[in-house]
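Repro:
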Amino acid sequence: QLVESGGGLVQPGGSLTLSCVASGSIFMINTMAWYRQPPGKTRELVATISSAGRADYVAPVKDRFTISRDNAKKTVFLQMNLLNPEDTAVYYCNADIVSYTGRRTNDWGQGTRVTVSS
């Protein structure tokens, strides 16, 4: 199970940090990622981070967003700076999880809404 938090209303130019905690019978978490779905649009990738900490970003958020993770706490973060109205979306956490039984799943959180508006 993945549970996101940290969304809300922020003014243009402001910052927010999203968190996503994984729980359950987890042996290992491989790649973790953040996606977003703007109003009226399809879900899109924002950033990924490998288990070793390698981060990748899509062009629109590069140099403004930072993805990080705490493997001990099974948590991934998304620090978002210089937010603009185009960043308004529901943000979803995604993780590639391996259970103690060896079962591998690709899990999604329920989403957290970010609204950038003055």
